[in-house]
Specification:
By secondary structure, this protein is mostly helical. The chain is 40% helix and 0% strand. It is built from 3 helices and no strands.
Length: 53
């Protein structure tokens, strides 16, 4: 059976740099925070339980 080293050179993988981390960080920094809505909710929280008939 062949090994990973037969097909891929480990030294080349170490030399390659990816800008994926920098792109992800830039995207995360550009997002705005979601703020809570100050308007009262129209949905009542304490609803009666419905019968299962």
């Amino acid at each position: 059976m062949s090994k990973v080293d037969d097909w891929f050179n480990k030294d080349d993988a170490k030399k390659q740099s990816s800008s994926l981390g920098a792109d992800f960080q830039a995207q995360a920094d550009s997002k705005t925070e979601v703020k809570a809505d100050d308007a009262p909710s129209d949905i009542p929280i304490n609803q009666p339980e419905l019968p299962l008939e």
